[in-house]
Amino acid sequence: MLRLEVRYERIGDFLADARAQLAHGGLLVRGDPPAGADRGTPVELVVATPVGSRAVAGQVLQVLAGAGVAVGFDPSLLADLVALAEAAEKSAPPAASHGAAQAAKIQQALHGDKNQRAAILRENNRMLHSYVLRNPQIGIDEVAAIARMTTVSGDILTFIAGRREWAERPEVAIGLVRNPKTPVPLAIRMLDHVGQGELRQLAKQTGVRDAIARAARKKVLGT
């Protein structure tokens, strides 16, 4: 497997690339493309920053002569590294303890137990909520509970709906449908994973958003 490395001496440089490139599913490894770097080639990419290093598996998306190699991979693999870098960037000498506390909470959200995850979800800092959903220990009961929460952002609910193994569970789908923070078009799509009993209730309950109630009635009537 081709091994590439991108090294950042400054946190700001890493975060600039992360914000500009990770949203598109990868990073650009600048420099002359090495031998064997062809489109689709499997890659082990080492990302080294002042707050730590990670090795991620990906593949070559594009070879740019004289510019570098675009490597595609799952951006969530760098989520904790980005979080640590963001916490470090925000911390200045007078507020170093705050920055350290923020980094500790991010680590707790990413790796903590159920009680610790619940505590993070009670935080007013919504930025921390997304890291809870990236915790590999999170259970479907917790995801369903988050789907019902009106204290989380619409982005969190959209993230849940984007995970097929979560969204197709009826207890998660109904939470998203009933949550007023869920965008209406997304809530309507979630009706596909709601049971007939719940659909009938949604169709006749007055507290349900009109567009969702109408969509539920159509499904009940089979139209």
Textual characterization of the structure:
This protein is α+β, with helices and mostly antiparallel strands and 223 residues long. It folds into 3 domains: 2-74, Thrombin, subunit H (Beta Barrel), CATH 2.40.10; 91-135, no CATH class; 139-223. It contains 12 helices and 5 strands. Strands 1-3-4-5-2 form a 5-stranded mixed beta sheet. Helix 1 crosses helix 2 (79-90), helix 6 (140-148) packs parallel to helix 9 and helix 9 packs antiparallel against helix 10 (184-190). It is globular. The termini are far apart.
Task: Please give the structural blueprint.
Layout (H helix, E strand, L loop, with lengths): L1 E6 L3 H11 L4 E5 L11 E8 L2 E13 L3 E5 L6 H12 L5 H16 L2 H8 L7 H4 L7 H9 L5 H9 L1 H4 L2 H9 L5 H7 L5 H9 L5 H12 L2
Parallel strand pairs: 1-3
Antiparallel strand pairs: 2-5, 3-4, 4-5
How much strand content do the residues show?
15-25%
**What structural class do the secondary elements suggest?**
alpha+beta
Helix segment tally: 12
Largest sheet: 5 strands, mixed
What Rg do the Cα atoms give? 21 Å
Note the overall shape: globular
* Count of folded domains: 3
Number of separate strands: 5
The amount of helix comes to 40-55%
Strand order of the largest sheet: 1-3-4-5-2
| Average pLDDT figure | 88
Distance between the termini: 53 Å
**Order of secondary-structure elements:** EHEEEEHHHHHHHHHHH
Give the low-confidence spans.
92-96
